[in-house]
Design a protein that fits this description.
The protein has 597 residues and is of the alpha+beta class. It has 14 helices and 18 strands. It is 37% helix and 17% strand.
């Protein structure tokens, strides 16, 4: 079998070292970064068919929709909690947590979340997942501190556990790139290079970049540049598929939000660019004089048909150079303010006109572009906001804004549990597992506030287990965690007042507990742990009552009186009453009897 021809162009070499999956995910990402038309001829080049050019206006509608979704889903950092108001030991005596342990675990998770910037990382992961369908998180320990790295899914090739397809056993990061340097003569030189990194259950190895072979079937010789022996016993990688569909086992990616809308996005970009060019061409009307002397033309002729004039380097794509072949040369009239086109009159009449677009033409193009934008926005489950609407809705309540954005809110209601169950919770679980492994090592310095308490708490979830081969390995049983998201929209002052008054009334009536009341108003005051906050309030109230009672007792003792709340002394025995006669004289009581009044 004949081998394919050897490539020498660095760009061609890079292309042959990319897989079909790489190119598919890269295309999805380019529609987000508005680089999908890179490499196409200029929109102003009339020598190329229109739809093979790159539009001059590229509207980032996909990126805008993604940012809107991310801001709704993760407007505030979600609360990762183990339900500290519940005692799970009765239902699960082996892995359940009582209230004190749950509060300790929640406190540790909040501290770790701040260390790894969990909110920022979560936004980056969700943004990348929506853009390409898949995102990858790599938690690790660097210089004694917990960190979470992210990488592009198109670079990664995972190997999943056969028993649990959600668990990554090995991850290889590999991609080609162009390296620019100079040759022996000092001239710029481009070289196609390959990068490679491999992560498994014991090591994390980064190899030295090598020059990409001219053929894909040739495997280069790799030399390790750095090897980190983490020895965790598991591969520290979280693979998140965004809202996946039912596909074959060979497809391990999710579904990007715009996966079926790329043709529509390109159509809208061309529609807007066409309108832009038409308005520019005819926005400054060309004056036409008819009936002048035959052959008389005071304006200079030019070899350019595009509207833009000028010799600046930045304007080279805005005009059409004259072809080298004179037979293909296309002449044209100069355009610009003050330029007049003059023609002879066949009927002998003179006239002056202006070349411009009728209003109906621009209106039709505007309606077409707006219709495409609305259809794309609807398919993206995105609600575009008009600045005028935002100004008029500045005083709307959070419930009213949620109703106005009902379609997008309903979509985000599906995104939140998918992201929480398949990305956020697995990531936090893996971070806790890594923290436990490094905190138990005495030979390495590892920073983590409350490390000893966390180790004592998490050790119960790491149990030895015998495998099928008779060996013993540690099995991690994650603690029961849940995610609590913040409301989609910030409550208005009226919302806060109404909720506060209702909560206070229910608390005073004994309908709800203090902890429930604190949970109701927690979003208003950025209270991260309502259960702990309520406990602190009760503890402070008890201490205040005890201090007040002690002060009153001291004052009463100084005044020689019984302190408030003390038992009253028994009354002294009174003298027996002597009966009184009708004339007011008292009778003497009979011996052995008590006188009665």
């Amino acid at each position: 079998m004949a081998l394919p021809p050897t490539r020498t162009n660095p760009d061609d070499i890079v292309r042959i070292h990319t897989t079909e999956r790489f190119r598919r995910l890269d295309c999805l990402e380019r529609f987000v970064s508005t680089e999908q038309y890179a490499g196409r001829p200029s929109f102003w080049n009339d020598n190329v068919p229109l739809f093979k050019r790159g539009p001059c206006i590229v509207y980032p509608i996909v990126a805008t929709a993604i940012e809107s979704h991310v801001s709704l889903v993760l407007n505030k950092c979600p609360v990762i909690t183990s339900a500290p108001d519940e005692d799970d030991t009765e239902e699960d005596d082996e892995f359940g947590l009582d209230e004190e342990d749950s509060k300790q675990l929640d406190t540790s998770i909040r501290k770790i979340g701040k260390l790894v910037r969990l909110h920022t990382v979560a936004k980056a992961l969700l943004r990348a997942a929506m853009a390409s369908g898949t995102t990858v998180a790599i938690p690790a320990v660097r210089t004694g501190r917990l960190v979470v790295d992210t990488t592009l899914a198109k670079w990664c090739t995972p190997t999943f556990d056969k028993q649990d397809p959600r668990v990554v056993m090995r991850l290889e990061i590999r991609y080609p790139y162009i390296q620019t340097d100079t040759d022996e003569k000092g001239k710029p030189r481009k070289t196609a290079m390959l990068f490679r990194r491999a992560i498994d259950a014991q090591t994390d190895t980064t190899f030295e970049p090598v020059e990409a072979p001219a053929r894909k079937e040739i495997e280069p010789t790799w030399k390790p540049a750095q090897t980190i022996e983490h020895g965790l016993g598991f591969c520290p990688v979280v693979w998140y598929r965004y809202m996946p569909e039912q596909t074959t086992v060979a497809d391990f990616d999710g579904r990007a939000v715009h996966a079926r809308l790329m043709d529509e996005v390109e159509g809208m970009d061309f529609a807007v660019s066409q309108r832009h060019r038409a308005v520019l061409y005819q926005g400054d009307p060309i004056t036409i004089e008819i009936g002048v002397e035959q052959g008389f033309n005071p304006t200079e002729a030019t070899g350019f048909t595009a509207w833009h004039q000028g010799d600046a380097e930045a304007n080279k794509d805005y005009r059409q150079p004259r072809p080298m072949d004179a037979a293909l040369a296309k002449g044209g009239r100069k355009r610009g303010p003050g330029t007049v086109w003059q023609y002879p009159a066949n009927d002998g009449k003179t006239d002056v006109k202006h070349l411009t677009l009728p209003e109906s033409a621009v209106g039709a193009m505007t309606a077409n572009a707006a219709d495409l934008e609305n259809k794309i926005a609807e398919a993206l489950h995105w609600m575009p906001i008009d600045p005028k609407t935002m100004m008029s809705g500045a005083s709307l309540s959070g419930r009213a804004l949620e109703w106005l954005h009902k379609k997008q809110v309903n979509y985000c209601d599906d995104v939140r549990p998918d992201f929480a169950d398949n990305c956020l919770l697995p990531l936090v679980d893996m971070i806790l597992r890594i923290a436990l492994a490094y905190a138990q090592r005495s030979e390495e310095w590892f920073y983590l506030p409350g490390k000893k308490a966390l180790v004592a708490l998490l050790s119960k979830f790491n149990r030895p287990q015998r495998d099928r081969m008779g060996g013993v390995r540690e099995a991690w049983i994650p603690p029961h965690l849940s995610v609590r998201f913040a409301p989609y929209f910030t409550p208005s002052d009226a919302d806060k007042k109404l909720t506060s008054e209702m909560t206070r009334a229910d608390l005073q009536a004994g309908v709800i507990k203090l902890e429930t009341a604190v949970k109701a108003v927690a979003p208003f005051y950025d209270i991260e742990a309502p259960a702990q906050y309520a406990e602190d309030i009760e503890k402070a109230a008890a201490e205040k009552a005890e201090s007040l009672q002690a002060a009153q007792a001291a004052l009463a003792a100084a005044a020689g009186k019984a302190p408030p709340g003390a038992a009253a002394p028994p009354p002294k025995a009174g003298k027996p009453a002597v009966p009184v006669t009708q004339n007011g004289k008292r009778k003497k009581a009979a011996p052995g009897k008590t006188a009665v009044a």
